[in-house]
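Subject: Sanity check before I submit

Could someone independently write out the structure tokens for this chain? I want to compare against mine line by line before I put it in a report. The sequence has 282 residues.
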Amino acid sequence: MVHYDYDADGDLTWSESAYVESFTVRDDTHIDFTLTKGLMWSDGNGEFTTRDVQYSYDRMKTGHYAGNFVAYDRVEILDKYNATIVLKHAFAPFIIATLCEGVGTIVCAKAVEAVGGTFTTKMPAICGPYLFEWEPRQYVKLTPNPQWTGRKPAYANINLIFITEMNAAALAFEAGEIDCTRISPSTYERYLRDTPANSSLTVAGALQAMYLSMNQDHPKLQDIRVRKAIQQTVNADAILQGAYGDAAERAYGIVPPGVLGKRDQSKYSYDPAKARALLASS
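---
Independent answer below. Compare away.
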């Protein structure tokens, strides 16, 4: 019902979706919302209502993604368009980690119940600007939904082609076979020097850190001197250069850059001599 995205500069932006007229966090455990009237589900499954929201969230309390809904209690329906999401307790990540993620997708209660509560790649009903066709590992096709009465999308048709090799995707982009693509760090470095004609390069923000962890229960790693020695042998700068072409920002702890609490420096550095001395003393 709300969503976040990255703009052309890679900055995080928020907006209410076409499905809601209002969305208000009343207090720590109550979120009030009003749905947009007149949005219809495909295949004659009726109007999009608060019953669909309630059904969608309730069915997620069990199953693979129940962890995203541990703070969720219920949806209190006032009428077809007005309801309140009630949490068991205050949980700040609920909006971004639940409502704005795929697990927060609303499904059509009538259509999903008619197919037994579960489905695979064919959606029982769609309420949105596009009809959806998905062939796993091959493509996703989005075509105009003639029943959609909300805001019109920027593109009439979208074809998403699965290209697992990013270098092959870059070649397809340069050949004009595709309009946009994700590229590898090595291609990014090349594009910084020479961006293809009539193209733009965008770096989207990402809250992710790659790190080395050690199993302290392993007999050989229980000695802290051994673990510190391993730390001294990791050349983070060389890894960033070799694996990411210096496209990734260096992190100094498990909290990634861009998140409150990140470190600005490390207590250790690449020093094989210190590593050997630590191992000799262990």
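---
OP: Matches mine. For the report I'm noting this point. The chain has eight helices and nine strands.
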